[in-house]
């Protein structure tokens, strides 16, 4: 932990660099997604709104991953007071932010996948089920689910001086904590909840239940899209337009399941060994960043309309920048008399 030349430290540092790059790309790309879908005024505006909501949550997921990885590196490298109270407490806050934004992203994806499947399977009933008012309430519903699931994590630990928690030499001599004056320890409130099995319920609702639900919904949606596309010659133009965003979104769910499988495998390693490896945690943050950054690539690959809109928007931005640059050069300077 304290030897900067060790393999574990170097791996963590390299993973942090990747998290910075991928997370920065994710923030910018999700802002671009929001801007592109903001201009949609066709029949797919409900999907455009939901995709924009997901992009907002994914932007915060990328930001939280960057902050969490950076806070750990700051402690390990000693760029600020090594293991100081502020930096140590921020490590815990950033961890909670990562878990919270992950829940937001997963729950938003569940809503979008549900809307896709039921919209295809029951098109007439879906109009009354998924009204504009209910679609616009999705961000609030996601927050209502995410806050209770992550609130216990916010109170599970507090920052204190290591000597106060481990006053005797035999307990105090923990190699992984050498050089850290302050540490985060489990709070009594969290330990009481843990003894009552609250953590098991929390993990079931936040990790175990959503992923199989997403897999089932995505599989059913894929089958339905395949059936509809086989009968393409009999489709009305409005039906063809309706399945385009669903077809575009299917790989997003598959990629989310793949990245979360990596995160779950990393967490299982922690549970089995009883040790939190910093390299494994950095790898989990990288999975989280990649998952939240990949949507723009998938949209560009799967949707001709998105490619067109993205190229048009980028062209407008470049045109505006070039016009501003030319104007600043041509504009005559005032001469003082």
Task: Quickly describe the structure.
A two-stranded antiparallel ribbon has the order 1-2.
SSE blueprint and pairings:
Layout: H1 7-38, H2 45-77, H3 85-121, H4 123-129, H5 132-136, H6 138-154, E1 157-161, H7 162-165, H8 169-172, E2 182-186, H9 188-195, H10 198-208, H11 210-230, H12 237-273, H13 278-293, H14 295-302, H15 304-330
Antiparallel strand pairs: 1-2
Helix pairs in contact: 1-2, 1-13, 2-3, 2-13, 3-4, 3-6, 3-11, 3-12, 11-12, 12-13, 12-14, 14-15
Can you put this structure into words, describing what you see?
By secondary structure, this protein is an all-alpha fold. Helices cover 79% and strands 3% of the residues. The chain is built from 15 helices and 2 strands. The protein has helices spanning 7-38, 45-77, 85-121, 123-129, 132-136, 138-154, 162-165, 169-172, 188-195, 198-208, 210-230, 237-273, 278-293, 295-302, 304-330, and strands spanning 157-161, 182-186. α2 runs antiparallel to α3 (85-121). InterPro entries: GPCR-Ligand_Int (IPR052954), GPCR_Rhodpsn_7TM (IPR017452). The chain crosses the membrane at residues 13-37, 49-80, 92-118, 138-158, 207-225, 246-274, 280-301. Residues 29-299 form the G-protein coupled receptors family 1 profile domain.
């Amino acid at each position: 932990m304290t030897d900067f030349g060790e393999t574990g430290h170097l791996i963590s540092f390299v993973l942090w660099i990747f998290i910075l790059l991928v997370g920065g790309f994710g923030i910018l790309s999700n802002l671009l997604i929001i801007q592109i879908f903001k201009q949609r005024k066709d029949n797919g505006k409900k999907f455009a709104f939901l995709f924009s909501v997901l992009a907002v949550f994914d932007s915060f997921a990328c930001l939280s991953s960057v902050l969490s990885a950076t806070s750990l590196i700051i402690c390990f490298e000693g760029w600020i007071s090594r293991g100081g109270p502020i930096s140590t407490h921020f490590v815990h806050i950033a961890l909670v932010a990562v878990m919270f934004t992950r829940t937001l992203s997963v729950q938003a994806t569940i809503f979008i996948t549900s809307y896709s499947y039921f919209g295809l399977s029951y098109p007439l009933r879906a109009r009354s089920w998924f009204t504009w008012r209910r679609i616009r309430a999705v961000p609030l519903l996601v927050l209502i689910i995410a806050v209770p699931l992550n609130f216990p994590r916010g109170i599970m630990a507090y920052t204190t001086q290591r000597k106060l928690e481990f006053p005797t030499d035999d307990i105090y001599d923990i190699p992984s904590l050498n050089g850290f004056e302050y540490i985060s320890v489990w709070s009594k409130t969290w330990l009481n909840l843990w003894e009552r099995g609250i953590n098991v319920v929390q993990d079931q609702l936040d990790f175990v239940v959503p992923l199989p639900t997403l897999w089932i919904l995505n599989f059913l949606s894929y089958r339905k899209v395949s059936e509809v596309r086989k009968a393409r010659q009999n489709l009305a133009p409005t039906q063809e337009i309706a399945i385009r965003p669903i077809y575009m979104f299917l790989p997003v769910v598959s990629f989310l399941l793949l990245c979360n499988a990596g995160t779950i495998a990393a967490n299982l390693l922690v549970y089995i060994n009883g040790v939190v490896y910093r390299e494994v945690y950095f790898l989990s943050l990288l999975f989280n960043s990649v998952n939240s950054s990949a949507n723009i690539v998938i949209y560009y690959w799967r949707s001709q309309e998105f490619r067109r809109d993205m190229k048009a928007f980028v062209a407008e931005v470049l045109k505006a920048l070039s016009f501003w640059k030319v104007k600043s050069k041509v504009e005559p300077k005032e001469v003082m008399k």
